[in-house]
Amino acid sequence: WAPHSMVSLVTLFDVKEENSMLKAVKIGTTKDHICNEVIWAQNGNIFICSDTKNSNPVYQGKFYVYYVRTVITKEEVKTEGRKGKGKKKQPAKVKEKREYVIDSVDEIDEPKSDQLVWDPTSRFFTICKLPSSGVIRAAMVKNSYQFSIYNAKGDLLYSYENPKLQQFAWRPRPA
After folding, report:
1. Least confident of 41-45, 82-86, 88-92
2. Are the beta carbons of 27 and 102 closer than 8 angstroms?
3. How far is the first Cα of the chain from the last one, in angstroms, to the nearest whole number?
4. How many CA atoms lie within 13 A of 23 on its CB side?
5. How deeply is 117 buried, as exposed, middle or buried, from its count of CB atoms within 10 A (0-12, 13-18, 19+)?
6. Is pLDDT at 148 greater than 80 in this prediction?
7. Closest Cα partner for 60 from 14, 19, 115?
């Protein structure tokens, strides 16, 4: 159970042009979570809701992976053909309709983790617990810092823990 003020949901909107006017159209919402940050993958199809900024350590380390997919449906629109002898029927036109769907992919529990970083390809992300800039050397010896690498589906691929770990960064992908 969490106090109501801490539970939130994420609502996504798309901007569309209708009659030469821009209009915000609601795509959908996520489930209710204890969430205070949304981290998008660079490709814009996957996002993760997290509570890494939560001051209460009990709620830190929850990550909810979501995928936004496009569903395209085609409708046949009948056009009225010309009537009379010898006139050809007009072929039906196909109208394409695009809708977005938000799918919950996975929930990850990484207690006390405070950072999430997407790799440049948006295929992997890292959840980290690293020392903050104000941590003194004596405190770092007592604590063990870690990073875990996940694929975009939320499957754990690798985990590393070390008391001397100071930072983690993804290497840029060469062209």
Report:
1. 82-86
2. yes
3. 47
4. 9
5. middle
6. yes
7. 115
